[in-house]
Design goal:
Number of strands: 2
Strand content: 5-15%
Structural class: mainly alpha
Number of domains: 1
Strand order of the largest sheet: 1-2
Helix content: over 70%
Radius of gyration: 17 Å
Oligomer: single chain
Distance between the termini: 24 Å
Shape: elongated
């Protein structure tokens, strides 16, 4: 799921901090905007926009964090609106609903732990590429 590689060049201290902060931003936004899935996506997007003209190392990690938050946003949005429809009485609690909530819990926990791991490694200068997101980031982000 996670691939650890050395980056092409040795990033400077400020680059390491910004790259790590791109992941920390998504964690803070998840905790701060927990019931509303759009909050963490907007916060991560704002951090990416603020660093889109930065060095390749920083841009790359900001983009990977943004892509991972986008998938979390999609999964959580479905769960959020499904829960609202259950609360309002349009839907009933079903096995599919419980299974989806369990899946969301596992997905968010894996993303949360992966984000912490990646933030720590990025701060140390270790280039971490996530499965799927790393390849997609390589296609989007050019040196």
């Amino acid at each position: 799921m996670i691939s650890i590689k050395r980056f092409v060049y040795e990033p400077g201290e400020h680059e390491l901090e910004k790259a790590s902060n791109s992941y920390v931003m998504s964690l803070v936004a998840i905790i701060g905007g927990l019931p509303f899935p759009i909050i963490n996506l907007i916060a991560t997007l704002a951090f990416y926009v603020g660093n889109r003209k930065g060095t390749y190392y920083v841009r790359w990690h900001c983009m990977q964090a943004l892509l991972s938050q986008f998938s979390v946003f999609l999964v959580n949005t479905v769960g959020f609106w499904w829960t609202i429809s259950v609360i309002l009485g349009y839907e009933s609690i079903s096995n599919q609903y419980i299974a989806y909530l369990f899946t969301i819990l596992l997905f968010n926990a894996a993303e949360f732990l992966g984000t912490i791991f990646t933030a720590i490694k990025a701060r140390k200068g270790v280039h971490v590429e996530w499965w799927f997101y790393g390849d997609l980031t390589n296609l989007i982000c050019k040196p």
